[in-house]
Amino acid sequence: MVKIHVYLPDDRRQVGRLQLVDDNDEIITGPFPVLGKADNQAAAANGNPSRDPLRKNGDTPLGTYRVSEVRPTDNEHYPNHSYGPYGFLPLIAVSGQALHAAQNGRAGLGIHAGDPGTGGKLRPTYGCLRLFNDNQKQLVAALKNEGLPCECIVESTSKPSSITFLLESEVYSVGEDDGDVPSEPAEAVAAIAALEAFSFIRSPFSIDAPLKKNNSRLTPQLFDRYLDSRERTLLSGLGVYAIDAQSKYGINATYIVAHAIVETGWGTSRICIEKNNLFGWGAFDGTPYQSSKGFPSREICVDFVMGKINSLYLDPAGRYYRGAVLGNKDHGMNVYYASDPNWGRTIAAVAERIERFLDSQT
């Protein structure tokens, strides 16, 4: 069963991170910036000025929840501006603070998105966890692909983090629906600042790991063993193509494999199955299947796409070169390759898992 894992800082004025993982703690999608802070005004108005998570209108309670459904939004119960167009995930308390809060009468908690505030900012809720719209879309799509129900674990992290951007203001407008009580909270952490500050435990394979002249220890046999260990074999055989591309273009094979895993959902995407397209090449956000390029074979896809990535993204003379690393929206491939600002981070996280597996085998 997959799990939604949420890490919230002790200071809820800071953003945390949310990621969907499998039974092996392999990241399926994410991590994404998430806010678990309550609306100050609503909390005070309901006798909870400290935003105690165990009481109504407090911050998101820690603990374990169950997620069993995706409720549609953009209707009278879940207006689009407050919840976003990609669904509401109800959180049913199981244990920890979550259960104590439910016993105290807290209800209506969930994971949702919603329009950003002025300047593209995440907004506090009334106990719910809020993501950016695009991230909620990715999370819901991954859950539908993996299947529900699932567990959601919300825990606190006091580890040092680069997430240091606090709320800039707390000015609220009243009368619109959001979270679990009627009212619309205002701005929180600036989206761009949150994304750039957002980090998880850095690994040897990070968003700034060089993708050229940094050969992987991956072998075709080890890659197939890695897939077998996670009971995911739809990409079996990819390792040899990645090693060939590494030899031909000098591009790190671990990155190539991680890129394919992320873009195809471990080989399950329609584009992969029907078009042998392992990297979303040509897939525009509005028409991903129709616009994506088809290939006669996966081997040809790897050679073609890595050749293009090498000349366009990783060569200093390339049209889209911003550094031969995965990067983010400031630098690296992520500036132009993908609209998702967490694209580079997600691939780096998968590459880290592969590297850890390689370490365990050598």
Automatic annotation (TrEMBL):
InterPro entries linked to this entry: Glycosyl_Hydrolase_73 (IPR051056), LD_TPept_cat_dom (IPR005490), MGlyc_endo_b_GlcNAc-like_dom (IPR002901), Transpep_catalytic_dom (IPR038063)
GO molecular function, one term: amidase activity
Transcription is among the record's keywords: no
UniProt entry keywords in alphabetical sequence: Cell shape, Cell wall biogenesis/degradation, Glycosidase, Hydrolase, Peptidoglycan synthesis, Transferase
GO biological process, one term: peptidoglycan biosynthetic process
Associated pathway: Cell wall biogenesis; peptidoglycan biosynthesis
EC number(s) reported in the record: 3.2.1.96
Mannosyl-glycoprotein endo-beta-N-acetylglucosamidase-like domain residues: 227-358
Segments of this protein annotated with the region Disordered: 42-65
Name of the protein this chain belongs to: Beta-N-acetylglucosaminidase
Species of provenance: Gloeobacter kilaueensis (strain ATCC BAA-2537 / CCAP 1431/1 / ULC 316 / JS1)
Lineage, uppermost ranks: Bacteria, Bacillati, Cyanobacteriota, Cyanophyceae, Gloeobacterales
